Amino acid sequence: MSKTERGIALVTGASSGIGLVTAQALRRDGYRVFGTSRRPMPDTADGIAMLICDVSSDASVQGVVDEVLSRAGRIDLLVNNAGIGLLGGAEESTTTQAKAVFDVNVFGVIRMTNAVLPVMRRQRRGRIVNLSSILGLIPAPYNALYASTKHAIEGYSESLDHEVRTQGIRIVLVEPGLTRTSFEENITRPDRPLALYDTVRANAEKLMRENVAKGDSPQVVADAIVRVANATSPKRRYTAGKAAGQIRFLRRFLPESFVDKNLRKFNGLPD
Fold first, then answer.
1. DSSP letter at 18?
2. Which of 41, 113, 155, 203 could join 50 via S-S bond, C-beta 3.0 to 4.6 A?
3. For the Ketoreductase domain, which residue ranges apply (predicted)?
4. Domain 7-266 sits in CATH 3.90.550.10
5. Residue-level pLDDT at 75
6. Could you give the residue numbers annotated as active site?
7. What is the enclosing helix (H) or strand (E) of 32?
8. Is 176 helix (H, G, I), strand (E, B) or coil?
């Protein structure tokens, strides 16, 4: 396809933040873009068609895929961006709350992927970009459940890529660092808070706010996704931003004791 007609892209969680900026970047690059949000939204002025989709619902996911096919006839690129956060001590969340986070962050990705794979297989062509995180590479005190979902996405994506590569489909991970998006929008608080964690939880939230404010622009992540979308032979994973690249290097090549000590220092935890 020509640069002015790259293909059909579907971006979940495109109402704001990384998802919206990614949808806009793909549109500028020549893709016809469909974005999803949980609530009704008008199409954007720059030509992104917005559709309602709840990634925790099988019917909703299949419905949005069917709608894109009815309008465009194909899906060349899926960007699984929709997700929610959870900040607090791991034991402060009930298993019900933990399941809810996994239902969006992990099973939402699986639902969307399962819905588009038959389409891409018929086309003999397709690419799926899964938004992971540096928290899919390292421990994350007071973000244990969120980090667990991203670790799961890492294993799922890398394994699936081997399964579907011979079908003309690639699964690629993009791993952002801290990114300047709306902190409050997708962060959930524990559903059974314990007084034991009140101070450290407040400190963790303060640290996150400070670091998010100094983080990368969402455009950094969007640019990485556009590179992935257009790469002839994509790598299995891409970091987005300098800090993400540094953390990946530290985790991969330096002694575990060094990483552990520096992670505790970064999070303001005693040795």
1. H
2. 41
3. 7-199
4. no
5. 98
6. 15, 132, 146, 150
7. strand 31-37
8. strand
